[in-house]
Amino acid sequence: MARRPGNRKSDSNKRLYVYNGGFLAQKRLRRMLHLAGYDIRIGMPSDGGMVGIWGNSPTAHRGLSIAEKRQVPVLRVEDAFLRSLHPGRSGDAPQGLLLDRAGVHFDPSVPSDLEEILAKDPLDDSALLDRARDAITRIQESHLSKYNAFDPDQPAPAPGYVLVVDQTRGDASVTASGADRADFIEMLVFAQEENPGAKILIKTHPETAAGYRPGYFDETDTSDRISLFSKTVSPWSLLQGAVGVYTMSSQLGFEAILAGHKPRVFGQPFYTGWGLTQDENPVPRRERRLTRSQLFAAAMILYPIWYDPYRDRLCEIEDVLATLEAQSRAWREDHRGWVASGMRLWKRNHLQKMFGRQKRVIFSNDAKYSQPDGRRHMAWASNLSEQQGAITRVEDGFLRSRGLGAELVPPLSLITDDTGIYYDPRHPSRLEELIAKRSTLTAGQERRAERLISALVSQKLSKYNLGGGLHDLPEGRRILVPGQVEDDASILTGASAIRDNLTLLQEVRASAPEAIIVYKPHPDVEASLRKGAIEAGPLADVIATKADAAALLGVVDEVWTMTSLLGFEALLRGLPVTTLGAPFYAGWGLTRDLGEAPNRRRARPSLNGLVHAALIDYPRYRDPVTGQPCPVEVIVERLASGDIPTPGPFNRTISKLQGLFASASPWWR
What is the pTM of this model? Predict the structure, then answer.
């Protein structure tokens, strides 16, 4: 298998001399090159040094001239094909780089390292091709592209159009193909002649739409049949509705191949010549026939270097996809701005950090607040009435923190649900939709869920991660019964006939008179912050006060619960779970349900599917170290290492006062 150009052992600590200020000014660029083994310098290269240039940029001639005079090799650097939310001209840092010792991928005059991989690498490793297929599916499902500041929910035009792709005027890939405006006009003529009667959609480049650089097409090229299209629609939605794709050398042509098209290509980009395109100007030396998976594996797995901003290291494409999924989801949900109603004062700072990166969140005490600028409306789920308007409900995620919300410990994850809320089975929720969707998983999704479960179990992680001791338990069939906050929203909406801790214990004892019943009071109740304290002694063999929930799950045989999340955590550890209410994980065939689970839960996902929906798809996570939106795996590592903030003295004082004045809980909550 071909070695990545940027990871050659011979490049370790290679002195890289540069003559473009961007190499010095862009911190992320410098860091990635350093991690790839390059030591950036200025001055004149000596023996053992190299010259670094940015693709075929206007400043590249400086480096090329010096490299020729000094007889040293050249490293050509370019952005990878999955770059960032916004174009580089906006200031967004790249997620990956293309490091090429031979040429540059878009210039056919000299074979690049990418072309060498495409032409000569066997590209027959089954594991590599499986990764490529999974990544293609994931990119399409998550609507990822080179730039990602678009809304996948924005409707594309009615299907049946021909897509003609514009590019920025003077783009290096266009120049390298020897093209100019006349060639773009010729391409437009071909699109019309080869598709008589079809509507022609000219896709404007994102940098042109943002006002950074003009394109090759303008309003003078439109007609009743031809229109410019500059809306921020997902490229995958556009490609799905197209009956043909015409491009000079745009990356959208590569994505068209991944979407199942055979695009008509008028330039000579890297993806032409391999049997996947209709080439107006073929590159004679490219004679090999490749599959889409092979093309993707070369261009997206073997060729680039990718960067992990959370762990400050080079990484694989799967990590980059997770990063871009988290960051693009945050932008897509937040870019219009939020109005947040009825949020407690101590939560507002954390909500601002989570949801206010694009526009500051406006906090209001008016539940019916409306904003004319298109802002979305959110409110804490438990504060809303059953059918209260088109409001997005917000709740803590299932991996919340190391400490209690009632003690004002800030959450690392939050849930946004514009359909319902996960704990209320009376109505559908976004989580129910996701669980049903994940009844089938790709191989990559299976592996990701399995790794996540393994990490959670091995690191003994749970929702609050409070630690604590492990009681000595008698031998026998051990049933763990988690106590709950009796006025919690999940009990009020999701419990069935049994709705309090005492009745729950009575039911378990009556059903299993011979069992060793281990009752674990809820941490909020133990801290005298919420309602639910009972005298459990006559019914329970062990009252596991201040016990480590994750440790308990390792020594019991099963769990009985009304709606507690501990039942979900038990499923992760392979324990049988009996539910007497209708928590989100009940009704899918993974639990024994004595409560009334909704009939609409007809899908039969695996445990991996349930975990993927509940922990990967549903919540939003914020990295407490970098402050960035992040995937769940980062939060798991932060919780395991303890690299998370702790509440200050003010928060601790307020939480104690909250407990003392529990009778005034509506004011606090």
Answer: 0.92
